[in-house]
Structure formats: C-alpha cells, structure tokens
Design brief:
The structure holds 2 protein chains of 2 kinds. Chain A contains 13 helices and 11 strands. Chain A is an alpha/beta fold. In chain A, 61% of the residues are buried. Classes of the chains: A alpha/beta, B mainly beta.
C-alpha cells in the first residue's frame, strides 16, 4: 500500500488581471504563501513541479526558484491543457509515493491577460489553394466544418446531453451560471464577484448557443500552490501542522479512451466518469459523502454534464438536479462555491491547484463567509481538452 | 477547376465522404492513422460514408475569429451507417427554434472560395431533408 499524502500548506493569489506583474511573480507569491501556510521553507522541499500552459517552454519552475530559493532540487515543468495544475500536483504525489521525496511543492500559474476567444483560427483571403495538414485542407476549416472554438465545442457537449436526456435546455444551462455568479459574491479571491438574475444570464450576448457571455469563463491571471508531504515525514510534524493538514485520499489522472465520435467532438464524459469511479474507489467514499465539489465549469454546459459524470445526480438527471437547487451552497451537494471557473476565473495552469486550495480551505474550516459548515470530504475535478481529466478527493485531518 | 476543402471529401456527380476503416474492428477515421485508436490494428481500407444521417448535437456560433462569417450552425451528424461527422448545418436559419436534435439531414456541397488562379474550393455541409 502506497503511503498517504497530505496537503500541508496551500495558497492562491486572487484571480484577475495583473498588468504590473508577470507569471513568475504570481507563481512565486503562491509558492511562498503555501510554504508559509505549511510552516516549512524551500529547504524542506525535495522537488518542485510547476504547471503552465501558455509558457510551457519557459522553464517556469526554474524561474520561480530564482525568486524563492535555488536549492538544486529537481524541477518538473508540466503542461496538460486545462488539467495542467492537477498534473503538477500528481507529479509531486507520484514522486513521494515512489519514495524519491518526502515533501514537494506543486505550483500552477497562468498569465493570459485579455486573451479573448481560445481556439478557432482566422482565414486568409488571398492565396493559391494547396492541400496541407492531416486532412489535406486548402484553408482553415474552423467555421466551415463545424467549430473549433471552446464555447462552441462545450456547447455541443451540453446539447448532446440534452439530446439524450429529458428536461435539459437553455434554461437549465443558464441556471448553472446564475448559481456560480451568486456564489462568487462570497469569495474575495474571485475575478468577478457580481450576482446576475437568470434573465440577465440568458439575455447576455450569445457566444455559442446555448452559452451566453455570462455562461463562459473569463481569461485571466493567477497562481496557486500546494506543499505536499508523505506520511512518514508527516508523523514528525507539529500537532498544529498535522491538524491543519488535509489528506489526499484519491488522486487520479485519465485520458480519453476511444469512442466512435471522439475525433469529431471531444468526449469529455468517459474520461471524467473513469476518473471519478477510480477516485471514489481509492478514497472509499461515494458521491453522497461529498461536502462540496469544485468541478470544471469552463462553460455552463460543461458543469451540467459533469453532475452526471461525477455521479452527483441520478443518471440522466442533471436537469432536475439544477432545477431543484441541489448544487447551490445550501443544497444537497454544493458545487463550485468558489464561483467556479465562470466567475472565480480560469488562469489555465493555476486552475487544477486552485480547486484543491478551495476544497482544502473548507475542510480546514477557514473559508470565511463562503465556508460550507462541517465540510469533511471534498472533490476537485479538472478537464483539459485533448483530453486529460484530474480528480482529487480530500479529507479533513481528523487530528486535533 | 475545383478542389475539395479537405481530402476526405470526394468530388464528382455525387460527392461523398471517404473514411479509413479499420479492417479488424471497423472503426472509421477521417485522416490517416498509424494504428487503429480503438484496437491497435494496422490495416485500413477506404470506405464511402452514408450521405444521410441525424443531427446529434449543434451550437449556433456567434463569436469567432474576425474573418469567419457568423452566426453559423456547427453540428455533429451521425450518419445512417454510424459514422460521426463534424460540419456546419446549411440551408437552415441559425435559430434554435428551427433546429431540432435528431432531425434528418443530408450531405450537400457548395463553393466556399476561389483562389488567385480561379480554382474553386468545395466544402460540404448537411442540409435538412
């Protein structure tokens, strides 16, 4: 049996826009925050893993070392689409489980600025047609053979669920965004902290039906970090450190297995279902045991289908689940009480670490106004198109 | 002169889509594969894909790169022989009230552009039956 791993310290910067700082500054702030929170220093770290997507070749981990301490430990720079942060965490977890480290630092960071629409290419006007690329295309196919844009791809994932299940439509998807915007008003770290009515959500500019602007996550900047420790070293720590630590009772990363339609429309369901099932087995918990869930609501359509993929609702019952208010902070299973990607923000590399920060903060009872009372088990989920899915289940320390 | 937008669109009197089908498990792929993503087999044969099918999912795209005309209807069609195809819905209003999940559609082609040599690029889409 592999040894237990604990989150000893964790920190995130507020998500938003940082025109006067760069990604190294943000990552360093998150890293130092996590070290201080855990009562340890960079000298205690046996390895560092740093995740960023858009600066994947920048040697970000080594740049952070220059800011916070060059101790010569191995650095793993990782990149895995929107699952980048979860991958950084898992890199440290695997090193500790392999016996190569007692303690390590995982960082996720992204600086996107006002990047706007992700994916979807422009078309050149003047040229001579020459087939090129894997499909022998004579021009970029986005907008001619369907869409590459993220709001559109995830809209289609949601509409496919609507095709297969009753009681799911524009209004159900919009209710997801209404909830997450409302939740964000309690989170001082959220990029946006403004409540909107259902009518305002549905009436905001359409991006890709059924996703309106208020149903899409923003681009932005931010960083988050976790100090992780294996149980042998954990046993040597102070009582105070142990009582605030949060146990990682499951850590899973999956990719998308073959499905017939997968090459045409990314399948975000099967890999999430596989990751969730494995995580529930590893942790020995079931969806009903979860005090809160932070899941990957890059778009409102995505959150709705993940209610079903993570087993939070009856099979096919995601529409009813949101209609009866189950994922609201006072409902059966609070989902995205941070405001989610839709309102807290989604600096891509940071997201998979920030979700773990959020869950850990509730389990410690330190979430302030947005605290879910009595939280003892929580789940953090991210998905990156391409695809990768990370699921972590965390449990309260139980040591007082 | 005409040229297909992509090489899996075969032009002629009755244009059709051509997939590479795994000779072991029957999985179909547009574009080349080194081995089958489903079973790992390494032999494929070209097959003609049915030109009729049903609408599996869609989105009406309003926001795209500046040179791309919007709104357009992006769709995934499941052909009658069980192959998923990504394309636009054509000859239909981009209005959710006019588009029904599961509706019958048929392959159609149209000229999408002309290059400096006068060569026409032919694209495909799916139109309501």
């Amino acid at each position: 049996m592999a040894q237990d791993i604990w989150v000893l310290g964790t920190h995130m910067t507020a998500f938003g826009r940082y025109p006067d700082q760069d990604a190294v500054d943000l990552a360093a702030a998150a890293a130092l925050g996590a070290l201080d929170d855990g009562g340890v220093t960079i000298s205690d770290m046996d390895l560092l893993s740093c995740g960023t997507l858009f600066q994947a070749n920048a040697g970000m981990g080594q740049q952070v070392q220059k800011q916070i301490g060059q101790t010569g430990i191995p650095v793993y720079n990782v990149s895995n689409a929107c699952a980048t942060g979860a991958t950084a965490l898992r890199t440290v977890i695997m090193a500790i489980r392999a016996g190569e480290a007692d303690m390590g630092l995982a960082i996720g960071v992204e600086q996107m600025g006002k990047m706007g629409l992700l994916a979807g290419g422009a078309r050149k006007e003047k040229n001579v047609y020459e087939p090129s690329g894997r499909f022998g295309a004579v021009m970029p196919i986005d907008g001619i053979l369907g869409t590459d844009t993220m709001p559109g791809v995830f809209a289609q994932a949601g509409m496919e669920y609507a095709n297969d299940n009753d009681g799911v439509g524009f209004e159900q998807f919009a209710k997801v965004a209404q909830k997450n915007h409302a939740h964000s008003t309690l989170n001082p770290l959220a990029q946006y902290q403004k409540e909107f009515s259902l009518e305002e959500v549905m009436g905001s500019p359409m991006q890709s039906y059924p996703n309106t602007l208020l149903m899409c996550c923003p681009t932005g900047d931010g960083a988050a970090a976790c100090v992780l420790v294996g149980e042998e070293r954990f046993a040597t720590l102070s009582r105070e450190q142990q009582s605030r630590a949060v146990k990682i009772s499951a850590s899973v990363l999956t990719t998308d297995p073959y499905v017939e339609s997968g090459a045409m429309q990314p399948d975000v369901n099967t890999l999430t279902r596989n990751a969730a099932q494995t995580a529930y087995e590893q942790a020995g918990v079931s969806p009903e045991d979860l005090s809160l869930v932070e899941l990957h609501d890059c778009f409102a359509t995505a959150e709705l289908i993940h209610y079903d993929n993570l087993g939070l609702c009856e099979p096919g019952g995601a529409g009813d689940f949101i209609d009866r208010g189950a994922p609201w902070r006072d409902g059966d299973t609070p989902v995205n009480v941070s405001g989610g990607l839709i309102s807290k923000g989604h600096p891509i590399g940071a997201t998979g670490v920030a979700n773990v920060y959020e869950v850990a903060t509730h389990l410690r009872g330190e979430a302030g106004d947005r605290q879910i009372e009595g939280a003892n088990v929580g789940l953090a989920h991210v998905i990156g198109l391409g695809s990768s899915c990370g699921v972590h289940i965390l449990e309260k320390s139980g040591i007082s | 002169m005409q040229i297909p937008l992509v090489d899996y669109l075969v032009l002629g009197d009755e244009p059709y889509l051509q997939a590479n089908e795994c000779t072991n498990c029957g999985a179909r792929f547009f574009g080349r594969r080194n081995a089958c993503a489903h079973c790992g087999h390494r032999e494929f044969k070209p097959v003609r894909v049915s030109d009729t099918g049903t609408l599996r999912t869609f989105s009406i795209v309003y926001r795209a790169a500046p040179t791309i005309p919007t709104p357009y209807v992006s769709a995934i069609v499941l052909t009658d022989d069980g192959t998923s195809v990504r394309s636009n819905l054509i000859n239909i209003e981009p209005d959710p009230a006019k588009i029904t999940l599961g509706m019958k559609v048929k392959l159609d082609t149209y000229v999408v552009g002309t290059d400096d040599d006068g060569q026409e690029a032919v694209a495909f889409g799916y139109a309501p039956v």
